[in-house]
Amino acid sequence: MTDARDPESPVTSAPVPLLDPREGIPPVTAGPEALDDVVTAFAAGSGPVAVDAERASGYRYGQRAYLVQLRRTGAGTALIDPVACPDLTDLGEALADTEWVLHAATQDLPCLAELGMRPTSLFDTELAGRLAGFARVGLGAMVENVLGFALEKGHSAVDWSTRPLPEPWLRYAALDVELLVDLRDALEEELRSQGKLEWALQEFAAIAAAPAPAPRVDPWRRTSGMHKVRRRRQIAVVRELWQARDRAAQDRDVSPGRVLTDAAIVAAALESPPNVHALAALPGFGHRMGRRQLDQWQAAVDRARALPEKELPQPTAAYTGPPPPRAWADKDPVAAARLSAARAAVSALADELNLPQENLISPDTVRRLCWAPPAVPTPEPVAETLSSLGARPWQVQLTTPLLTKALAARPTEA
Question: Where is this region: Disordered (predicted)?
Answer without folding.
Answer: 1-26
